[in-house]
User: Fold this.
Amino acid sequence: MPALKDLDYLAARLHGRRARMAEGNRLYALCGLASPEELAAALFPGAGLSSSAGIQRRLAEENFRELHALARSLNKPGAKFLAWLAARWQAENLKISVRRIAAGASPETARRLLCGPPGGMGPYGAGVADAKTPGELLAALPGGPLKDGLARAYKLYSGENSLFFLEASLDQAYLTELLALTAALPGPGRAEALALAAQEADSFHLALVTRGKFFNGFEKNELLRLHVAGAGINRRRFSRMLLAPDLEAARALAGRAAPEAGGGNAERAAWSRYARLANKAFRGSGADLGLVTGYAALRRLEAANLTTVAEGLRLGVPAGVLRGLLIRTAEEENV
Assistant:
């Protein structure tokens, strides 16, 4: 059994939380607000937030804490798996610091963007914010997949295009560990967790094709090095996608990872499939790890959608346009 506590009780709690999530009509209504300050008041009454950056930081902090709280309800290796889901926010902190160091900006510039509870999500906070060079940044990190991935990337990449590859290398390191931890999960819920982890990795592969090949024009071998082993799109298929003449041809090679990509938006199609898998795991699982994994995926999408809303309100994007940018997660929308 993966649970330390009563799984039926935990399942009931998660279904109750799902009912309060910002999705469907509740989410669309937020698109009609006048400013990020109004959004902050709706989401976090009394918190005193007024900016898009503040909203995004709060969303990350709450998601980080919730994942660790859920992890405490599970036995290993389920707890280790859920804790690693929270490490995605630590990877985002590292990306912020990598960009700041490359730009030569002051640590204060990044501190307002770094997400996490006091201390900056454990060992990924103060030292990361204060680092002035790649060497100092690596020295501030504890051993583990993210440090190892970033260290390899700093050795491999330099020059004007290095930021793309440094950030992508952090994603690769995070996803590689995620798939390894998912593969080690026991019985009930393992299949659902594997499907979601593989789809997330394939969304990354599609982003490499869309942004790396077709937008930035990077060479095939540079991008092929970033392939995540164990994903649905294997290395051979990813190589073929990188040789495709256009994005639609590449998307077709992705198969079920990016179905029905209307308008050639392969990345959006991939995340829409992720939403469907999350709903399937949440509703189709018993009181087991599959339900918890589905819930965690839905919460991740909720944070992504609310970030889109916050940025859209900051930029003055019309409500109708903003709604069209969101990933549909509500079951009544037939996601």
Notes: The CA atoms of residues 176 and 228 lie 6 Å apart. The first helix runs from residue 7 to 19. Confidence is low (pLDDT under 50) at residues 1-5.
